[in-house]
User: What shape does this take?
Amino acid sequence: MPKNVIDFETLDRTLRKPPFHQWLGLRLAALDEDGIEIAMPWRPEIVVNTDRGYTHGGILAALVDLGADCAVAAKIGRGIPTVDMRCDYHRVALKGELRVKAKVLKLGRTFASAEAFVYNEAGELCASGRGVFYVAEQNQD
Assistant: This one.
């Protein structure tokens, strides 16, 4: 696997730039040659079931996508579009910080694949998934 081409501060700044990521409150928690870790604070707006207080599955899927994308970005130095993604749900995510751990599985000239795992504050797996990303240079037409 190629080495990271982006440092922690630059990747964290890139991660925090989009308005959606700002709304989620994302921050880069770790970066090494094996992968990345992203932290997201809990917020009441992500709750889908008000009786039980668990997080909407779309938020967990977004974290899978963001984590995998960020892992690839660390290797190529820029964000890339998602071509395909799957997300599996393992348990509800209740109130508490969420952590995403992700790593690149394959980095090709045109596509990359990466996997991500979303954990609750107790370190229990809530969701996992894989994504395929388009990494070829894009025309700036």
Q: What stands out?
A: The first strand starts at residue 27 and ends at 32. Residues 8-134 form a domain with the Thiol Ester Dehydrase; Chain A fold (CATH 3.10.129.10).
